[in-house]
Amino acid sequence: MIYRVVLAVVLATALVAATLGPIDDARRQRASAMVSDQASEIERVADTLLETDDPLDGPGARRVVTLRVPTRTWTSGGVERVSLRPPTDQTPARLSWLLTDGQPRTRQLPGVPLRTPDGGPVVLRRGGRHRLVLSLDGRPGVPVLTVRRLK
Predict the structure, then answer these.
(1) pTM score, two decimals?
(2) How far apart, in whole angstroms, are the C-alpha atoms of residue 70 and residue 88?
(3) What are the angstrom distances between the C-alpha of 123 and each of 31, 99, 149?
(4) CA gap 46, 109 in Å, rounded
(5) How many Å apart are CA 68 and CA 131, to the nearest integer?
(6) Element (H, E) at 108
(7) pLDDT of res. 20
(8) Pairwise CA distance, residues 134 & 33, whole Å
C-alpha cells in the first residue's frame, strides 16, 4: 500500500516538473508579445501623427500612448525594464525590453524619427501602465517626434 502512495507522489512530482518548463516559456512569450504589440501601437500613432499633421515652429501636435509593462503572473512572465531609444547613425529607433529571467528583446521602429529631450532612452522600470507623449516637432519638411513620459 505504501509503495502505491510513494509511486503516485513520485509520478505527480515528475508530471509537475515536466510541465513547468513549457509553462515558463509560454509566460515569457506572452510578456514579449504584449510589449511587441505595444511597439506596433507606437509605430501606428507615430505614422498617423506624421501623415496628418505638419511640424510648426512652436508646440506641435501630440498624442498620448499608454504602455503596459507586464508583471509576472500565472499567465504572463514579467518584464524588468522597457526602454525606447532614439535612432543613431547605425540603427533605427527601437523598443527594447528585458524579461525577468534576463533575456533581452528588441523591436526596431524603422522610419520613426524619434528623439528624447535629453538624447538618451526613455526607460520604464516598474510594471504597470506608463503614459508617453509623442510631440511633433522639427520644421516643415523635417519632422521629428519627441517622446517623453507624461507626469
Answers:
(1) 0.77
(2) 28
(3) 17, 14, 9
(4) 10
(5) 9
(6) strand 104-109
(7) 63
(8) 22
